[in-house]
UniProtKB/TrEMBL annotation:
GO molecular function, one term: zinc ion binding
The UniProt record lists the keyword Metal-binding: yes
Residue span(s) of domain Zinc finger DksA/TraR C4-type: 85-116
Keywords per UniProt: Metal-binding, Zinc, Zinc-finger
First and last residues of each zinc finger (dksA C4-type): 90-114
Organism of derivation: Pollutimonas nitritireducens
Segment forming the signal sequence: none
Pfam families: zf-dskA_traR (PF01258)
UniProt xrefs under PANTHER family: GENERAL STRESS PROTEIN 16O (PTHR33823:SF4), RNA POLYMERASE-BINDING TRANSCRIPTION FACTOR DKSA-RELATED (PTHR33823)
Name assigned to this protein: Zinc finger DksA/TraR C4-type domain-containing protein
Top-level taxon: Bacteria
Length: 123
């Protein structure tokens, strides 16, 4: 990560820390929502249409939690790469990832070229 100044890495690290705090808060809220869904379901002895609406809400919250957790994993990965000193290096081609891209997406692990590389050649 020689292409990144230590102050740039520091500010990216701060971004990662803030992102993690935000995600943990989102997950906490989603879990609290699920809790209240369960309480509502238990409150209704015979669940009608409300029950299916509530379980739909729970499924939605659970998928949000799954997305947030995968983002948390990406943040952990980025911090690990910072510690190991290979942060900002493309996993696919080994070239430096543009600082602008990292500022926009601190968890980026591939350079723009590799990210945009088409799966198959266009005719
Ligand atoms: Zn690349």
């Amino acid at each position: 990560m020689k292409h990144l100044s230590s102050s740039a890495v520091q500010s990216l690290h701060r971004q990662l820390v803030e992102m993690r705090a935000r995600l943990l808060e989102e997950i906490r809220i989603a879990h609290a929502d699920i809790e209240s869904v369960h309480e509502s379901l238990e409150g209704e002895s015979r669940g009608g249409s409300d029950a299916s609406e509530l379980s739909r809400l729970e499924a939605l919250r659970r998928s949000e939690i799954a997305i947030d957790e995968s983002k948390l994993n990406a943040i952990d990965e980025a911090e690990r790469r910072m510690n190991e000193g290979n942060y900002g290096v493309c996993m696919a081609c080994g070239k430096a990832i543009a600082p602008d891209r990292l500022l926009a997406l601190p968890t980026a692990v591939r350079c723009t070229d590799c990210e945009q590389a088409p799966m198959s050649q266009r005719g």
